[in-house]
Design a protein that fits this description.
This protein has 186 residues and is an alpha+beta fold. The protein has one domain: Transferase(Phosphotransferase) domain 1 (Transferase(Phosphotransferase), domain 1, Orthogonal Bundle). The protein contains five helices and seven strands. The protein has helices spanning 67-72, 77-92, 105-114, 129-138, 149-163; strands at residues 5-7, 13-15, 44-45, 50-53, 74-75, 168-173, 181-185. It has a three-stranded antiparallel sheet with strand order 3-4-5. It has a two-stranded antiparallel sheet with strand order 1-2. A two-stranded antiparallel ribbon has the order 6-7. It starts with a strand and ends with a strand.
Length: 186
């Protein structure tokens, strides 16, 4: 997934490669009935969040999918929050592959579906406690319990401000041993 992120001026991140998502079916909703434009549609609403159902999402990467995506092919903003938590893991471990100790995607899916709590990915040495706490809020089992996107943005800004001069410098990263880093203060 990190290969689908471009970093631009001012460290602005942009998602790419979304062509692989294809078109998800949408259900017309409310005033869309009166609008003749075919692109004016809404996703289905499950009572909490707009949800898109996909009949075929085989091309999507399993390691970033939330439980409801694996179980029901059901996608929503909270499932994007789950995937963002996995992306945070990648970024904070300098590109370690999520669930790297599990080889097969089918086994990753079983792990995600059967893990009792939100610790689906372990806290590596390079991930601070407050960062991991935020990641765990992204990995709540029930999507309505996950941190809302606006709150996630606010907490990320708080973490950035808090880190300020306390940034850590990586002095040794053993090749082939993701997450096995030596850290020292600047």
């Amino acid at each position: 997934m990190a290969e689908n992120i471009l970093v631009g001026d001012g460290y602005t991140c942009k998602l790419t490669g979304l062509h692989s998502l294809g078109k998800l079916p949408h259900k017309r909703h409310g005033d869309a009935q009166d609008n003749p434009l075919p692109e004016y549609v809404y996703a289905e609403d499950d009572g909490y969040f707009p949800v898109c159902q996909s009949g075929n999402d085989e091309g999507l990467p399993v390691r970033w999918k939330a439980p409801e995506c694996l179980r029901q092919h059901s996608y929503s903003t909270p499932s994007d929050v789950w995937a963002f938590g996995v992306l945070m893991y990648e970024v904070l471990t300098l590109g370690c592959y999520p669930y790297r100790r599990i080889r097969e995607d089918d086994e990753v899916a079983k792990h995600v579906l059967n893990t009792a709590d939100e610790e689906v990915l372990t806290q590596e040495l390079s991930i601070h406690d407050d960062e991991y706490k935020l990641m765990k809020q992204c990995w709540k089992r029930q999507r309505k319990e996950r941190i809302p996107l606006a709150d996630l943005k606010e907490k990320l800004n708080d973490l950035r401000k808090k880190s300020g001069t306390q940034r850590l410098k990586i002095v040794n990263l053993s090749a082939g041993h993701c997450g096995n880093v030596t850290l020292t203060s600047l």
